[in-house]
Specification:
Length: 196
């Protein structure tokens, strides 16, 4: 680890300012990447709280940090990103349902379609597809071609871009409450399967 040097040639202790600096940065990265309640963060905090800079203690901190890095590099943080995304989309779905229940079909359509399109794009990006500047039809095509959606989802997805386009271009007369309900149903199921 850069900047961590033993204190003196024969010492079993690290120089305090260097290891505290490294440990603080490492702990911050763990909190950002995994969250405060994640095992990596909790284990690091527990060892750091008792650490006096002894070579073995700092080695334990390094080991926890290396384990976290391996998990991050291995893609195991995906579930955290998906969970956070799912919560955001879930809020949009709740708002869309409330709007639909209050008879605000057009508002519900925009919210539901925005949640759908963004969820599809994020799902594609999380699976290595570059769709950031693509229209919804292309995103759906990319997901299908990579086999990320299948069965009934494929068929339902075919109708979604048309509803989305009507909603985003204010073609209100071409959208029914049933259309909005079908988008909401699809988004809810998609979130449950892919973002929970």
């Amino acid at each position: 680890m850069n900047g961590l040097q033993l204190w003196g040639a024969e010492s079993a202790f690290y120089e305090p300012s260097c290891w505290h600096q490294w440990a603080t940065s490492a702990q911050h990265m763990l909190h950002v990447a995994f969250g405060v309640d994640a095992p990596h963060s909790q284990n690091f905090a527990a060892v750091y709280a008792k650490c006096n800079g002894l070579q073995e203690e700092v080695a334990a901190l390094k080991g926890i940090f290396r384990a976290a890095k391996a998990d991050y590099d291995g893609g195991y943080v995906f579930s955290l990103q998906a969970r956070v995304s799912g919560e955001i989309y879930g809020d949009l779905v709740v708002l869309a349902k409330a709007a639909l229940d209050e008879g605000a079909k057009d508002v519900a359509a925009v919210l539901a379609c925005a949640a759908l399109e963004d969820a599809l794009k994020r799902f594609a990006l999380l699976n290595g597809l570059d769709v950031s500047d693509k229209v919804m039809e292309d995103v759906v095509g990319a997901l299908k071609s990579k086999g990320l959606v299948g069965g009934a989802q494929k068929t339902l997805l075919d109708a979604m871009p048309k509803i989305r386009n009507h909603a985003m271009h204010a073609n209100w007369g071409k959208i029914t409450s049933q259309d909005v309900g079908s988008v909401l149903g699809f988004v809810e199921q998609f979130l449950l399967v892919n973002f929970s």
